[in-house]
Amino acid sequence: MAGGGTGGHVIPALAVALELRRRGHQPFFVGTERGVEARLVPAAGFPLELIRIGGLKRVGPVQRLVTLGLLPVSTLRMVALMRRRRTAAVFSMGGYVAGPPVIAALTTRTPLVVMEPNAVPGFTNRRIGRFVTRALLSFPETSRYFRAGRTELTGLPVREEFFALPRKAAETGFTILITGGSQGSRTLNRAVRESWPLFRRSGSPVRFILQTGKAEFEAIRAEFAGSGLVGEVRPYIADMPAAFAAADLVACRAGAGAVAELAAAGKASVLVPFPYAADDHQLHNAEAFERAGAAKLVLDRDLTGVTFHETVTALADDRPRLDRMGEAARRFAHPDAAKRAAEVLEEAAP
Questions:
Q1: Same domain, residue pair 53 and 126
Q2: Do 32 and 49 lie in a common domain?
Q3: What pLDDT digit, counting tens, does each position of 155-212 carry?
């Protein structure tokens, strides 16, 4: 299981690994000691083999040279490791950690299955797209980066609770969930704070659920307490499915995990792509959702208190449009993504 550094790479791979273990297989992970895999993988009961590798995208020339120097050594280590463990197949979520395992798989002709959850593949998957055994995708347009006949729309593994959420009744009032991820988003936090006087003056009956991240939590909580508006501000939301269930609209970034959860829950959204994401993949994800009628796209540079207020108010006043957006989002959902990925790995393995 290759792919690490962030939860977006590790958590879906863990879902597939759990399914493989239920089927009697013995998955092991490859990662670095500084990535989140160092904490999440052992906690889930899987072996983690450590390698030394860094990124090539959005890094300085010194880091790029270090990474290029580490790549051959880490790849040779992977070849030896795969032979020792008699590896039947390699599953890659992409990212810089996947580089050595992927090259080792291609070198040893080990079946390679990649899961590409973004509309445009990342650096690693773009480079090896035509050589993979199978590519598991979330967006139909991504298939052009891989060899014909070797792709399948499986979606990204998402917690089952998101698929089971009941449809929220309109009579319960309008609630918006704003989340910039576990660390929060300064852009979203700022725009929401700027919008509060506008919501107060307009009298819009909007309830707010805001996940701020730890850094700005205390200041934002105090400001919201004096705003006269209804809702709650939290540094981190542990039960995100429950927050989704309470929301009529979600404002968030457009990472692969975020859009997969929106699809599973069938929620309308305002997507604000992180402008510094590798290969601008969040923008491509948001554009795909907007083309399908599932989301309203607002660029990071355009998000202000005024645009946030106008966008939310327009959607809150158009319940039929919100319903159509939710249904369009649900068409991206794939409830059996982890199960199907495990099946594909079984099919690919000799």
A1: yes
A2: yes
A3: 999 988 999 998 888 777 899 999 998 788 999 999 999 999 999 999 989 999 999 9
Residues 112 and 171 in one domain: no
CA 235: distance to chain centroid? 20
User: SS3 of 23, please?
Assistant: coil
One domain, residues 123 and 25: yes
- Answer yes or no: do 78 and 144 share one domain: yes
pLDDT at 344 exceeding the cut of 90: yes
Name the pTM for this structure: 0.83
Distance CA(94)–CA(15), nearest Å, equals 15
Residue 225 CA to residue 233 CA, distance in Å, equals 9
C-alpha span between 136 and 134 (Å, rounded): 7
Question: Is 119 within 8 Å of 282 (Cβ atoms)?
Answer: no
Is there a single domain that holds both residue 253 and residue 270?
yes
For the chain, state the CA radius of gyration.
Answer: 21
Sign of the C-alpha dihedral, residues 220, 225, 231, 235? positive
Helix, strand, coil percent values for the chain (each to nearest 5)? 50, 15, 35
Question: Would you say 113 and 345 are in contact if contact means Cβ atoms under 8 Å apart?
Answer: yes
Helix axes 7-22 and 256-265, enclosed angle (nearest 10): 60
Burial 42-63 (b: 16+ CB within 10 A, else e): eebebebbbbebbbbeeeeeee
224 Rama class: left (phi>0) / alpha (psi -120 to 50) / beta: alpha
pLDDT surpasses 70 at 46: yes
Q: What is the mean pLDDT of residues 130-146?
A: 95
Spatial separation of the C-alpha atoms in residues 256 and 281, rounded to whole Å? 9
Q: With contact defined as beta carbons under 8 Å apart, do 19 and 44 qualify?
A: no
Q: How many domains is the chain built from?
A: 2
Residues 147 and 76: their CA atoms lie apart, in Å, by: 27
Residue 1 lies in a domain: no
User: What is the mean predicted confidence (pLDDT) over 321-339?
Assistant: 96
